[in-house]
Amino acid sequence: MRAFVVSFFLSIVFTFIVMKLNLTTGIIPSLNVSAGLLGFFFVRTWTRLLHKSGLLKQPFTRQENTVIQTCVVASSGIAFSGGFGSYLFGMSESISKQSSNTHDFKNPSLGWIIGFLFVVSFLGLFSVVPLRRIMIIDFKLTYPSGTATAHLINSFHTPHGAKLAKKQVRALGKFFTFSFLWGFFQWFYTAGEDCGFLKFPSLGLQAYNYKFYFDFSATYVGVGMICPYIINVSVLVGGILSWGLMWPLIENRKGDWYPVGLPSNSMSGLQAYKVFIAIALILGDGLYNFLKVLSQTILGLSHQLLTKKLSSELPVADHLIECVKSSQLSYDDKRRSQLFLKDQIPTWFAIGGYVAIAAISIGTLPNIFHQLKWYYILVIYIFAPTLAFCNAYGCGLTDWSLAPTYGKLAIFTIGACAGASHGGVLAGLAACGVMMNIVSTASDLMQDFKTGYLTLASPRAMFGSQLIGTAMGCVIAPSVFWLFYNAFDDIGNPGSEYAAPYAIVYRNMAIIGVDGFSSLPKTCLLLCYVFFGAAILINLIRDRVDKKWGRYIPLRMAMAIPFYIGPYFAIDMCVGSLILFIWEKINKSKADAFGPAVASGLICGDGIWTLPASILTLAEVKPPICMKFLSRGSNAKVDKFLTSQG
Asked: Which parts form a coiled-coil structure per UniProt (predicted)?
């Protein structure tokens, strides 16, 4: 019970963090380390207090720590797979007004969002449960994130590890406090539009006009410390290529490539180039990685099936345990396998659960989205277990979940089938949500099974924790989004703090699937083809060249993000990378031990500040000061006015 109480409060914390990242840039680092560390800290503190009072009945174990981490990640994962910064918000009227299709929209409402998530978020869990033995024990898939999390949790529960974890939590707490207070301090100077440190033209006014500035965001400095160097550099390269070179050059073709005098957010002008070239890069990179992981999955399966004689009938648990005992495994592996196989989840329960939830979903979803017909949903659910298996297997090999790619596949197929006259845009976006939730939760569950296998946690406990965490997320994530949606009037608007860049990207993908490319301005389609082909070509080069040099080639998906919103956050992330790089040069062991904790503190503190900031906004409490940095022309006018009043 205490594990789920702690999980509930940590889920709220992490959902705020993921939601802020979703609605600002869409870049979300792995929060497994933070969840495991904070879970360890809170329960260890709780049990120590009970121990001193003589009321402690159950000691804190690594298995309980694993359950907490699983529950928190499952809950906060709904904030990503729920599409609050992508397909779901892309349905809204505010996003539709920024696209060429302004009539197909469905505004967010707390009731239907919670209902939608409850009927689609559990299917992925039931779809892969019968395959857990094959994935974890027979195929011995690594699941790098799950393995790393297990080693971290195991290390916490050793005398040396507990001492280090205590120091890590102390470091996290210090930077959490600093980040929270820094957010509070910045709030004082944001009384009007374009005010405060967020709008500080640190690299000059001309650079500021093209989104090149440091916005003093503790969140993205922390994200930069967690993300690999190549991701941060890739984002910066994408920002320089787009806002430093391409957009100024395309602006000079105004009147030739697109009409003069269009609004800044018109999809017939420069905005179309920003959105659709980013889409081309994302689709090119996604298609290549989809085919790459799919081929690796097929080859891996073929190898496994050729080298292992898998029985067509699943053996009972007792027989499997005997097989494990007699095999040439280490003692630790034998112990893990025995426990993993002893606590069975019946296959009939998984299949029955999938069929029951699918039936409820087929009957419910057309009432939420009348454009999404029941037979579209049925087709998705027939193919979904296969795609969920492919994603879970590929994730075990590469640590790469392709859930957004499978979602985009659903956008194009269902949107094209529905057509423009039958609300194809909304049908495609809703189908994307169904598919993304299934394949995302399936790979997450397998990662958690791997963590549980290595920490000797019961598979039933892991599955139960995932179910409870998902149920929490289906309520917490929409509630947090609803707070953001009502507190910030400019949410989703280009140039605002919460621009939700992927919302317009996903909506325009749906429009392309339904209407084609006919509405794009001159040469935009040609540039899209060029960048689509370039993404595939660069991927091929990266995979073919020696790893020593290939690791320096920028990642296309990361490069695409600043094409639409600008490179300001990339500068924050590179500052985080620079801090970590210098720290590693001074003391690598200390940087490795405390870097993730410091980064997590920066992200968590700034993320949690959005809660009181939202409440203050809803209560119409305004900051007292507007610190604004004006252009030279504006400064001259102010000087002239002050002189005349002198």
From this structure: none
